[in-house]
């Protein structure tokens, strides 16, 4: 089965869009376009589940988790791309039945950024501390962690749709994510800059870590934009044999 635009004789193109699951409004803006139906959880797993509960799976042809992630593999840097081989949460695992062509993605202006295959760990709360990242990597062997992929994978399995996940490292394993950043996420998934500035005013020592986090995040978004054209698939997004 092809999820993408390419089709051979006798294998007509499915005109339905692909559902793109994101956590932040910046990710949703990158993903938006023809052939896409995009939902944004605002980094709230329960909100994402609620959105999917009322979503009609007959209107889409596949599900892709798309966005940034926290690094667990210490060899990965901000901007590196992880294409999921599987997603795990607790004792549950979901295979990523779709394969993304990393060679084609790597050719689209990602510079020195790496493109790897690996596991994604799904969590309900932000994994911010370096020690917690290290423990999760040791426990799961996952390359990265996010709060949407396991929910998207579970939904796809429940409704019988193909699933893929493409995540770009934002905060690497060696860097702690400032809690102030997550506290400043608005309900629509955007960032409340006033709240961040008030936090810096109260504790100026946080400025350096915030600047580093911002640089990492912007680097991750640039890589994510480089991967955008592959969401529709074409020859680069194909379903594995089930």
Supply the helix-strand structural class. Answer: alpha/beta
Q: What's the arrangement of strands in the largest beta sheet?
A: 3-8-7-4-9
The fraction of residues in strands falls at: 15-25%
Q: Indicate the overall shape.
A: globular
Q: What's the Cα radius of gyration?
A: 17 Å
For this structure, the CATH topology is Rossmann fold
The residue-averaged pLDDT reads 81
How many beta-strand elements? Answer: 10
How is the main sheet built?
5 strands, mixed, barrel
Order of helices and strands: EHEHEEEEHEHEHEHHHE
Can you name the CATH architecture?
3-Layer(aba) Sandwich
Instruction: Identify low-pLDDT runs.
Output: 1-9, 234-242
Q: Tally the helices.
A: 8
Fold and architecture overview:
This protein is of the alpha/beta class. The chain has a single domain, classed as Rossmann fold (3-Layer(aba) Sandwich). The chain has eight helices and ten strands. The strands form two sheets. Strands 3-8-7-4-9 form a five-stranded mixed β-barrel, surrounded by four helices. Strand 4 and strand 5 form a beta hairpin. The radius of gyration is 17 Å and the shape is globular. The model is unreliable at 1-9 and 234-242 (pLDDT under 50).
């Amino acid at each position: 089965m092809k999820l993408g635009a390419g089709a051979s004789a006798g294998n007509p193109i499915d005109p339905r869009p692909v559902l793109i699951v994101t956590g932040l409004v910046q990710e949703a803006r990158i993903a938006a376009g023809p052939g896409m139906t995009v939902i944004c959880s605002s980094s709230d797993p329960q909100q994402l589940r609620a959105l999917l509960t009322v979503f009609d799976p007959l209107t889409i042809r596949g599900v892709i988790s798309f966005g940034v992630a926290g690094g667990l593999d210490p060899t990965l840097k901000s901007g590196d791309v992880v294409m999921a081989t599987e997603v795990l949460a607790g004792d549950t695992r979901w295979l990523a039945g779709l394969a993304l062509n990393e060679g084609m993605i790597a050719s689209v202006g990602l510079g020195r950024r790496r493109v790897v295959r690996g596991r994604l760990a799904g969590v309900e709360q932000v994994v911010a501390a370096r020690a917690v990242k290290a423990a999760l990597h040791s426990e799961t062997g996952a390359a990265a962690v996010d709060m949407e992929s396991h929910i998207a994978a579970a939904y796809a399995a429940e409704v019988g749709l193909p699933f893929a996940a493409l995540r770009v490292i934002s905060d690497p394993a060696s860097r702690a994510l400032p809690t102030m950043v997550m506290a400043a996420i608005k309900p629509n998934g955007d960032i409340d800059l006033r709240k961040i500035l008030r936090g810096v005013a109260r504790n100026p020592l946080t400025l350096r870590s915030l600047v580093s986090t911002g640089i990492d995040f912007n680097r991750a978004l640039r890589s994510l934009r480089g991967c955008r054209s592959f969401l529709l698939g074409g020859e680069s997004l194909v379903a594995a044999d089930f």
